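Reader question, answered in our methods column.
A reader sent in the components of a multi-part assembly and asked whether the whole thing could be modeled at once rather than chain by chain. We filled in our standard form and ran it. Here is what they sent:
COMPLEX SIZE: two components
ENTRIES:
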Amino acid sequence: MSTIARSGEKAEVKLANIAVVAALGAALIFVAGLAQSETLHDAAHDVRHAVGFPCH
Amino acid sequence: MTPPMMCVTRSDSPATDMLQRLLTSALIAGAAAGLIAALLQLVFVQPVLLHAELYEGGERTHFAAPSEHHHGEEADAATPTAEPAHDHSTEAAHDHAEAADIPGIDFDAPRDGLSILFSIMVYAGYGLLLVAAIALSESNGNRVTARQGLLWGVAGFVAVQMAPAFGLSPELPGMAAADVNARAIWWVATVIATAIGLWLIAFGKNGVAWAAAVLLILAPHIIGAPHPHEFTGPTPPELAAQFAGRAIGVGLAVWVLLGLFVATLWSRGREA
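And here is the structure of the entire assembly that came back:
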């Protein structure tokens, strides 16, 4: 019973780790690619165009 | 209370180990891919973009642009077609005299430095999402090898670049476009729908999953991307076509490498 509980816990930790990493990735993409702040837009302008994000 | 605490603080616990492995493989792979992307973009994409900016800023005008047939050094909307000598509206190729000053590869330190930085940031972000997807598939019993990383890379490219480009082609500065927020929402929705669709194609086990996959991949394009009511961009279609082709080509090359790098580092860490 304890091994089942532990493997369940392990799977939860795994999924939590995956969620943290995915959220971090999405945040980076948002800041670099999609955020409409003027400073960010100007700095990331050429990359946004080249990578195909909606710009302007 | 004590065991979970130990689990979090001990550096050799499987939980922190996994998080560390996820982060390092994604960030190293993303930085490498981002750097390669930046170099390819500076050589192949940036010159087209700079060329287009001459039209966007009015230094050059395209013969088909409405009320901008004037061909002077600067845009002068007040005298659109007043000077017959400069009116090239009947001539398709009007740029010959200026062909020599088409922008080439010319490194602009602050501007291109920022591009390198943001390129690394974008691909680090994609690397994190890719390694998360790979790890998620492994938690369901899949096992990803370095070589399979190539396929994951292609799938990532389709989800975040090819599918959005099918509705919103890579934009050249100056191109006419619909409201940026509407486009951003369509972009994000398309990426998510396509990614789930590709996941279902790869890991779905029955016809229902595959049918859902087809629907998810098609839906954004049946609904349609937001487009402007009329196309009035000042940039020539030749430049826009070249820009789109190159942006997509560089994207595929970099994504294949990103998939390879992420899967190599991730699977190597697993065996260690």
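What stands out: Chain B touches chain A through 57 residues (CB under 8 Å). The two ends of chain B are 31 Å apart (CA to CA).
Send us your own complexes using the same form.
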